[in-house]
Design brief:
By secondary structure, the chain is α+β, with helices and mostly antiparallel strands. It has two helices and six strands, in the order ααββββββ.
Length: 153
């Protein structure tokens, strides 16, 4: 192989490597955007009627889009009462049970969705034509652990 052919061959290899690297970066960027859209607590705060000024820590969320969209999340809220969590003009927590509340959702497999291992208070509410199941636990330190399962009908 002549020096000219080697140079052309090396140039082609470099071009292929650059195209592959750019393609991989594009795919990773798309994956990051989709993943962020499906797991961002702040993106769905209003959908769940959670007050804007509520301090939320340790949030986990999954959104499953589609005809029958569903979303489930768990978070710690700096609140002493469940009424402090939601926009009171949109969610009436007065009907929530002080007794054991059970989620009727058994297909969620996320490790953080541990509703079967804790004794929750809670209830079901209708919000803008969708439904939310809300369970919560008072941590005794001025915070609540809140579980929400939201779904469209």
């Amino acid at each position: 192989m002549t020096e000219s052919n080697k140079s052309k061959w090396n140039g082609c290899l470099i071009a292929v490597a650059v195209v592959l690297a750019l393609g991989l970066m594009l795919l990773l960027g798309i994956w990051f955007l989709v993943h962020s859209a499906l797991t961002s607590f702040e993106a769905y705060r209003d959908t769940m009627c959670i007050r804007e000024d509520l301090v939320v820590r340790e949030s986990q969320l999954r959104y499953s889009p589609g005809f029958d969209a569903a979303m489930w999340c768990k978070f710690t809220a700096e609140a002493g009462d469940i009424g402090e969590v939601f926009d009171e003009s949109r969610v009436d927590t007065a009907e929530f049970s002080g007794e054991d509340y059970k989620f009727r959702v058994d297909w969620i497999k996320d490790a953080w969705w541990d509703v079967e291992t804790v004794h929750l208070k809670g209830g079901d509410v209708e919000v803008n034509g969708s439904f939310m199941r809300v369970g919560y636990l008072d941590n005794g330190d001025g915070t609540l652990t809140v579980y929400i399962f939201w779904f469209e009908v």
